Records
---
Amino acid sequence: MTATATAPTAWVPGARGMLGQEVVAILRERGVAHVATDRELDIGDAAAVDAFAADHLFTHVINCAAYTAVDACETHEPLAAHINALGPANLARVARERGAIAVHVSTDYVFDGQGAAPYREDDPTGPENAYGRTKLAGEERFLAAAGERGYVVRTSWLFGPGGPNFVATMLRLLRANPEVRVVHDQTGRPTYAPDLALALVDLALAAPAVASGVYHFANAGAVTWFELASAARELAIARGLPIVGALTPITTAEYPTPARRPRWSVLATDKITAALGRAPRPWADGLAAYLDALATTQAPRD
Ligand SMILES: NC(=O)c1ccc[n+]([C@@H]2O[C@H](COP(=O)([O-])OP(=O)(O)OC[C@H]3O[C@@H](n4cnc5c(N)ncnc54)[C@H](OP(=O)(O)O)[C@@H]3O)[C@@H](O)[C@H]2O)c1
């Protein structure tokens, strides 16, 4: 099938992931036609992506698929590159062939974390770990293949109801342990997955009237992991969720991980604010919305 879709039709690879579920939910709310794929269509497999694209009509691709296990990337970098670098390149290529808008999600981990001011879209990159290297390669290959209809949206510290995340992990640990130690010397901007999903859909539907290229999206305000965990703990207690533990701030040196984490992960979001005509809301508002949802279900996932 090679006909071109006229009404917006969005293809969402990675639709079962934490972010992908929210993108699909917003498309559904908006009444935008969409086709959802996940693991069954390996985005790193060029022939499979070509075959899928030949069989489906789409005007937009919003790529939420990725290899996101940051520590595992250190020992599985070729697999991570297959998904995080080849995958977006394949999607961008078929989108361009069909004149579709292509939106791809990337990460604050493309930066070296040594900054002191919020990172702007054109600041020099320099990933500190294998995940960041594969995501940066994905950005570059995606933009080269997508041309004037390609949009990369970098985000940071994602949390939401649709998958494992730091906040859910903290609540699980605080349910079962008297003391939970959390890193207090890494700073970033937490991002509520439904807020990012809304921005991605709005950007995709506004394109190509907004300039193509790289954008940053994160909720407003910068905190350490310890501060985020503390806020989540207080909101959970206020909502009657079962919390027995207290939090202790520690240093990164006291919590070694296979992959190095950036010390400073604060993204500047002025560019997407100008493009969408609205600023991301404070991270604490997104966190409260998430805790409200958890309090309703009483079943935080981690
Ligand atoms: N989570 C964060 O804190 C964070 C921060 C910054 C940026 N990001 C970026 O945000 C985006 C969404 O992240 P997320 O947290 O929603 O990730 P996620 O929950 O891990 O979702 C990714 C989805 O992609 C699927 N997938 C993996 N390999 C695939 C392949 N070869 N082909 C097709 N689908 C595949 C995954 O399936 P499986 O579950 O079976 O692997 C999963 O359903 C990613 O680009 C990520 O790099 C995330």
Note: DSSP finds ten helices and 13 strands in the chain.
---
Amino acid sequence: MSIHILATGTSRGIGAAIAAIFDSDDIRFVGHSTTAGPDRIAADLAQAGAARRLWDGALDQLDGRIDVLINNAGIFEATPTTLSDAQWRDGWERTIQINLTAAAELSRLAVLHFQEQDRGGRIVNVASRAAYRGDSPDHWHYAASKAGMVAMTKSIARGYAKNHILAFAICPGFSMTGMADDYLASRGGDALLADIPLGRVAMPDEVAAAVRFLALDAPPSMTGAVIDINGASYVR
Ligand SMILES: NC(=O)c1ccc[n+]([C@@H]2O[C@H](COP(=O)([O-])OP(=O)(O)OC[C@H]3O[C@@H](n4cnc5c(N)ncnc54)[C@H](OP(=O)(O)O)[C@@H]3O)[C@@H](O)[C@H]2O)c1
């Protein structure tokens, strides 16, 4: 029987690598981004109700069964402390909504679906090294959203292992995508690489390989695990 997968944020970067790695005859894969595309459902996860519409649309495309949810969509937008009170709050709300609340809404729908199907399922959440190390002064909210994602993952793992529902998180460091390019440039480019013992940032296909392992092959006893992919730039 084929494995049915829904992944968010697959139009580019790490998500595009995730979509590519699941391109296989024994997998039915539905991707997502803010705009529709081949194998992609459109949903702006900043909007209320978008997670439900995405989930229902994916279920429809996958004949009523999803086995694996991958929460990868995310934003890394600066919210400097010098903004007005209202702007700073808006920045926080937008990041928390897209990076954490929408992933939580989709995870809830997945857990309910997995319970209803009574055949278990897997959730893989793409968090960040920032969950453990923190981030820049303009990105408190980003680090907080990813730390929340890790805590949510552990809660799901502990709460539903008895139902064969497994949950994992991945914490990439810098990964060579558009988002990372901007970040590296804003931090002095190559100088930042000196902080990474491996001497380079991660490649999206390295993150995708870890996602694939957790989604398909990781032994059930690994549930609740958080996998680092950061070239030993943050070892814990
Ligand atoms: N790259 C890194 O250095 C790095 C490091 C640690 C963690 N991560 C995490 O890895 C994940 C992927 O990062 P990336 O670098 O590959 O990002 P990216 O290249 O910027 O792509 C982000 C993806 O999320 C989607 N997205 C953005 N805003 C959205 C919204 N409002 N509603 C729905 N989808 C939205 C984008 O869709 P559109 O194309 O439609 O905008 C795109 O598919 C993120 O969760 C990120 O936090 C990345």
Note: Residues 3-229 form a domain with the Rossmann fold fold (CATH 3.40.50.720).
---
Amino acid sequence: MQSGPLIEIQNLTVSYHRTPAIRAISLKLQDHGIIGVIGPNGAGKSTLLKAILGLVPIEHGSVRVYGEPVDRVRQKISYVPQKEIIDWDFPVNVYDVVMMGRYVHLGTFERPGPRDRKIVESAIEKVNMVEYKNQQIGNLSGGQQQRVFLARALAQESEILLLDEPFVGVDAATEQAIIDLMHGLNKEGKMVIVVNHDLGKVQEYFQYLIMINQWLIAYGPTREVFQPELLSKTYGGRLTILQKSERLFNIAK
Ligand SMILES: Nc1ncnc2c1ncn2[C@@H]1O[C@H](COP(=O)(O)OP(=O)(O)OP(=O)(O)O)[C@@H](O)[C@H]1O
Ligand SMILES: [Mg+2]
């Protein structure tokens, strides 16, 4: 018997205009610590997250979350997209963006209550954005915006978090704060899946890894799958690997 969050992907193919972005992927994701998703540009990493969320049409196969189709459990999953699409001219402040995380819990005409406000305040605090909470989101730096979107995901209090490149554009201190936060959430029993570009940090950050390049190349404990043969299979000729004191560095782009 399996307890805790579980995502089951079976023979999943997703295409855009009939061209497959991910092909025949099968994965059974359990709570394995923080799960990283790696692969080259265009490998289908973002598409995989979107398929888990039900945001892209599935051509073949299925995705089940807790054994259910995703539209039934959608509020249990929070998502920080790779690049937030937002109408920057629309006047919305940090507090309001984070409050959006609470909407999945509210009825159609229900307004946020004191508990929602408390959760939002606490999420803003966790990402260290208290002093910016009344600022318009469009006036913030890229890294600050990223922290706000993370706070929105936290405010949703979901059991599964999907983060697409959360470290892009943030400084080293923020990156560390985000990863600490992820570990804390995972210890509370939440499932955390993170698409990440920087191979230098993979071994430090993720307990499990999904390696994809349209096809699934490997899924397993990082210490087992983060090795030259599987990495070159994932990145093809584009990766040059240097093995230095047992660490792997990505030096080619
Ligand atoms: N909305 C879309 N319409 C058409 N093609 C798309 C769309 N979104 C993605 N694709 C294509 O699908 C493939 C996979 O894209 P995806 O964004 O999933 O890759 P990725 O691994 O996240 O890449 P990156 O590292 O650049 O973020 C790419 O070839 C991309 O051009
Ligand atoms: Mg992507």
Note: The first strand starts at residue 7 and ends at 16.
